């Protein structure tokens, strides 16, 4: 029996990297996956590739920082597919530089994508979950940076810590509706987001790219290994398919031991 048979999962940032892998994992488990991404072309391409494999998908272009767009996209998906059972709030970006060099607009952009995006998608999805009365699962894409700090990442670390607070409140408020909320906290995963950071960090820290990987990114892991897309998707499946309110308000680190909190 597939673990997510017939469940509708709305996944933001699903046209690339971690979000796309989660969408694929869910689809293999029988879910109907909504590929929601600001990059509308890539969202449609991803959905087409999934449809070619016989999976039920729906693509929607949405900027998670835009209230109207989020409400419209979530309402549309719920109407087309018969509700929303799972939300994965995953869309994110990274900007690396010392805190004194951040502009206010860069700071606000990061907080807006990570936190406004999480709030807006949560609010829109909860309205459908509560109305349907079938419960649901809200999953936030945190990071080891929800628990630990690194140089050059002030707004990212701030925002990722914030997601844990949001998840705890949603866990409390959602409980009587059978809605759970949890945070996945991955270590470094090779995606476009990380590939872009390697040369940026090398410049900012005056290190070779090899040293950024070995001495910065993977330094604190137990085995010098990157976390994989599959590792993260596996945790996303656990949170989505867990059968009771026992697993809620939690943050689970999947990072080769980089963080043990
Ligand atoms: P990615 O760059 O491969 O994918 C991010 C996706 O989000 C892209 O498709 C992009 O178009 C979309 N996106 C960006 N801004 C958006 C917006 N405003 N509205 C809608 N979509 C938007 O990145 P990734 O590595 O897969 O990262 C996904 C999430 O995982 C992020 O929240 C990131 O912080 C988190 N994360 C990544 C790593 C890692 O090592 N890659 C580690 C921990 C956490």
Overview of this protein structure:
By secondary structure, this protein is of the alpha/beta class. It has 2 domains: 8-187 and 227-253, NAD(P)-binding Rossmann-like Domain (Rossmann fold, 3-Layer(aba) Sandwich), CATH 3.40.50.720; 188-226, no CATH class. The chain has helices at 17-28, 40-52, 67-81, 104-132, 154-174, 192-205, 209-217, 229-241; strands spanning 8-12, 32-37, 57-61, 86-89, 136-141, 179-186, 250-254. A 7-stranded parallel beta sheet has the order 3-2-1-4-5-6-7, sandwiched between helices. The two termini are 34 Å apart. The protein binds nicotinamide-adenine-dinucleotide (NAD). Nicotinamide-adenine-dinucleotide (NAD) binds next to helix 1 and helix 6.
What would a concise description of this structure say?
The chain has helices spanning 17-28, 40-52, 67-81, 104-132, 154-174, 192-205, 209-217, 229-241; strands at residues 8-12, 32-37, 57-61, 86-89, 136-141, 179-186, 250-254. It is α/β, with parallel strands linked by helices and 261 residues long. A 7-stranded parallel sheet has the order 3-2-1-4-5-6-7, with helices on both faces.
Which characteristics define this entry?
7-stranded parallel beta sheet; alpha/beta; binds nicotinamide-adenine-dinucleotide; 261 residues; Rossmann fold; globular; 48% helix
The secondary structure category is: alpha/beta
The string of secondary-structure elements, in order, is EHEHEHEHEHEHHHE
CATH class of the largest domain: Alpha Beta
| CATH architecture name of the largest domain | 3-Layer(aba) Sandwich
CATH topology-level name of the largest domain? Rossmann fold
- CATH superfamily grouping of the largest domain: NAD(P)-binding Rossmann-like Domain
Approximate shape? globular
